[in-house]
Amino acid sequence: MNVQKLVLTVLCTMTGAFVFSNAPALAATNNAYQSQFKPAFTSGGLAVSSSGEVYLVDAEHQVVYEFGPSGTGTPLAEFKASATSEKSFDTETNGNIAVNSSGDLYVIGASHTVVDEFNPNGTALLAEFNGNKTAGEYFYAEGIAVNTKGDVYVADLAQEVVDEFSPPATGKSEPIPLGEFNGLKTAGGSFSPRAIAVNASGDV
Question: Does the pLDDT of residue 78 top 90, yes or no?
Answer without folding.
Answer: yes
